[in-house]
Every structure is written in C-alpha cells, then in structure tokens.
Write a structure and sequence with these properties.
By secondary structure, this protein is of the alpha/beta class. The protein contains 16 helices and 8 strands. The protein is globular, with a radius of gyration of 18 Å.
Amino acid sequence: MDGVEHRKVKANGINIHVVEKGEGEGNGEAFNPIILFIHGFPQSSFSWRHQIQALASLGYRTLAPDLRGYGDSDAPSDVGSYTCFHVVGDLIGVLDAMGADQVFVVGHDWGAIIAWYFCLFRPDRVKALVNMSVAYYPRHPIYKPLQLYRRLYGDNFYICRFQEAGEMEREIAEAGTAIALSRYSEIVIRAHHVCPKENPSKMYLQMALQSRCRRGCRRKNFITTNWELTAAWTGSEVKVPTKFIVGDMDLTYHFQDAKEYINGGEFKKNVPLLEEVVVLEGVGHFLQEEKPDEINKHIHEFFHNFLFA
C-alpha cells in the first residue's frame, strides 16, 4: 500500500501492528474523523487496503490494526488470551495510544462480530458503525452457540472444526500451509459463487506461510467462552447508528432464517439505531475487496451524516 505508515502500538500488554493513513482536515475530531477498520478471518489489515487509500483521500484518518494473533501483531501463547474482551481491549488500547476519543468503526466477517462487541461494551467510543456480512444476533440465554451450529449445520461446519485447540493447526501443518490455503481459496470461490479479480485468500499466502494466519485460529476457540463471559449482556441491544451491508451471494446471508431476520424487522429490534440494510447483488463474502469502490461510497455517505454531530 502506497503512502501508509506502519506502527507498533503497545496496547493491553501486547504489541499491535497498525496501518495508518490520513491526517484529516483542520483541527478537532469533527474535522479530523477517524475510521477504525476491523478485519476478519483469516485476514489482516491488508484486507482494507482499498478503503484505507480511498477514505484517507476523502479526509479521514484511517486506522487498520492486525488483531492479536494475526499479521504482524503479537500472538500470545496462552489460548485463553483470545476472548472478545481481550480483542476489544486491544482496540481500546490502540485508540487511547492514538489519542482517539470517538471513532467511526467498520467491520467485516469475524471483525464484524468484534465490532458488535465493541459497540455493545463501549458505545461511548463509537460515532457510527458500518458492519458487513455478519449481522448482530443477541446472546441466547439458554443455548450455547456451538449447540446451535451443530444442530443446524452439523459437526463439520467450519466453526465447529476450530474448537479443539491445535487440531486445525495440526491439519494445516500436515497438509502444508500453501496447499491448505489454496484449498480454502477454492472452497470460498465455489461456495460464494464468485471469483474476484484479486482472489482475497491468495493475497494472504505469504502471511500464512510465515505461520501468522494459524495464530488467528485461536479466536474461533472462544465462541463458547465468549457466550459464558457475556451473560451480563443477555438481552442487550446495540445502540449506535448503524449501516449493514451484505452480498446476496454471501453464505452468511443464506444461513437458516438469515434473510428473514435481516430484512423482516427483528434485526432492527436488536439494533434500534439501524438506519439502513444494503444487499449488494452479485457479491459474495469479501465484498470490500470484490466491490471496493461501491463499499467506499457506502462508508463515506453514511459517516458523512455524523461528521458534525
């Protein structure tokens, strides 16, 4: 990426790699808006390359960290160090280190889940949210997420496969990281019925070959732990201004009852400040990389409404 600054920020006791570009315009946060980008799995800050360049050119200061366990950020060896509270704590630490009080937030995939948690835990730090691919589903008071996943999708559902610490890492190591990522790429393209000009999965090959991608597997182990730790938030709503974007060819949009939930009003009940749902035609899961110009326009048009709020 041209013209970006790479920084190592001490946050929450570890080093977080942050890609930064843009200084904003004028003085004060109203004239120096900051966007925090939160990537998914098995990605890194690199997945936001198109947004970093475009939004910085429009006057935003853009911050795209590698989450713990990914890219050039530290990867704690303790598998207990990857809960939603750890990751959101890292992001708060990054903002504090950057002198950012309130920010705009953009999330995708597993980063969207972290963005929902971020807004749930610290709405005071968020001006507005654009979230992509994964809608907000409130914590079920009785059933653990894995119970629901296994009942709906079976034991081979990919999230279920990541629950035993070290299991997927061993399988990746045995197959060879390049082969494993190549197979993942083929599955993604076949499942989402889309082959973007830049195959996003292949873009992360070098990172994966250096074993960085495998560290991120640890975060998927904590679906049940996150459920247990967030009992106090049962029934809570996400109360920040929100725009949600999903591709009509994204598998997440075709999960059981997902369309009805997103478009039928229940989603709005759980996110009362949800202002818009955008369903992009002919777009799969990696929408910010498949249709970067369109996504950049959606982000800017929504955030622009809150620049002077």
